[in-house]
Design goal:
Subcellular location: Membrane
Number of strands: 2
Order of helices and strands: HHHHHHEHHHEHH
Protein name: EF-hand domain-containing protein
Largest sheet: 2 strands, antiparallel
Distance between the termini: 87 Å
Helix content: over 70%
InterPro entries: EF-hand-dom_pair, EF_Hand_1_Ca_BS, EF_hand_dom, Ion_trans_dom
Strand content: under 5%
CATH architecture of the largest domain: Orthogonal Bundle
GO molecular function: calcium ion binding; monoatomic ion channel activity
Number of helices: 11
CATH class of the largest domain: Mainly Alpha
CATH topology of the largest domain: Helix Hairpins
Shape: elongated
Keywords: Calcium, Membrane, Transmembrane, Transmembrane helix
């Protein structure tokens, strides 16, 4: 997708670069054709290089195609270099200069245009994704605030466990939770996860922030509830161990006193 966008965006610079490329190829084609024509006129009838020159440089169109193929892999440029060296060393140097300019400069510039545009589009795409995520979070925030108000039956700006259970019995509320990516299999466990201050009342900030924390994972409520129960069990186990140690220490003191 980024490559297609890069091609579309760089169409203008690409046309300009292609036009310059054609002009360069045409300039070198004129020079080489002039030398080939002079060589063929003066060559003997049994010259083995004449036939090859007529294949690659029989016309201006063929000369342009030959030079284009020499820089794109269509024909080995050494094969053409051997023919031009038969004319004169100067034409061989001209051809080497052409290859150097096209491969090391012109084609790399065109490649750089695509790469630069692709990088810019990647950055723009990343920024767009961030903006879309921020917009989605804002929509979820508003949606959760409206959901809270719909379950606040007594208009007290707080939700009790009974109000949450009553709300979850309505299909509209369950659908609303699903829209933000939250599944609530157990109302009591869900309420306990959101009630961070242990007041048995959910204020709007507790509700919204808790839902945003749990959204996007269908098993988040179950997992968080299980972790919370495990934490309680661990604390109870540690308390029991401390109590056992205290009792053992008391028994040891009584035994020592006897």
């Amino acid at each position: 997708r980024l490559m297609i966008l890069a091609i579309v965006k760089s169409a203008g610079p690409l046309l300009i670069a292609g036009f310059i490329l054609v002009i360069l190829i045409f300039f070198f084609a004129v020079i080489i054709l002039n030398g080939v024509a002079g060589y063929i006129e003066e060559a003997h009838s049994d010259d083995p290089y004449v036939d090859m020159m007529q294949v690659y440089f029989c016309s201006m169109a063929m000369a342009l195609l030959t030079l284009f193929m020499s820089i794109t892999g269509g024909v080995s440029w050494w094969e053409l270099q051997r023919l031009l060296l038969q004319i004169h060393v100067m034409y061989g140097m001209v051809f080497v200069c052409f290859i150097s300019i096209m491969v090391l400069a012109a084609l790399n510039i065109i490649t750089g245009i695509f790469v630069n545009d692709a990088l810019e589009l990647t950055k723009a795409d990343h920024d767009f994704m961030i903006q879309a995520r921020v917009a989605q979070n804002s929509q979820n925030l508003i949606h959760l605030q409206n959901l809270f108000k719909s379950m606040d039956a007594d208009m007290s700006d707080t939700i009790t466990l009974s109000e949450l259970e009553a709300g979850l019995r309505r299909d509209s509320v369950r659908v609303a939770f699903s829209r933000v990516g939250i599944e609530v299999p157990d109302a009591m466990a869900f309420f306990a996860l959101l009630d961070t201050d242990g007041s048995n009342l959910l204020e709007i900030d507790e509700f919204v922030m808790g839902c945003l924390r749990l959204r996007g994972n269908a098993n988040a409520v179950t997992t968080e509830s299980a972790m919370q129960r495990m934490e309680v069990m661990i604390k109870a186990s540690l308390t029991a161990q401390s109590d056992i140690k205290r009792r053992l220490h008391t028994i040891e003191r009584h035994v020592s006193a006897w």
